[in-house]
Amino acid sequence: MHHITGDAAEKAYKHSKALRKRCQVLQAWADFATKPPAKIVSLDRAA
Question: Is the dihedral of CA 20, 15, 2, 6 positive or negative?
Fold first, then answer.
């Protein structure tokens, strides 16, 4: 069950802080996911 606390101003402040944190996390993920791949080394067992 969701508990409702605080007035409208407090809720807006909490939402704004959470949105900033989510933006930072999503930007970090985007930076990681779109960087060039690392050098791939073949592990050929026949050699």
Answer: positive
The structure tokens listed for 21 are: 């944190």
Q: Which DSSP string do the residues of 20-35 spell out, in sequence order? A: HHHHHHHHHHHHHHTS
* Per-residue pLDDT in tens (0 to 9) along the chain, 47 residues: 566 667 888 887 788 888 889 999 999 999 999 999 888 888 887 65
pTM more than 0.85: no
Residues 14/6, Cβ–Cβ less than 8 Å: yes
Give me 14's structure tokens: 């909490």
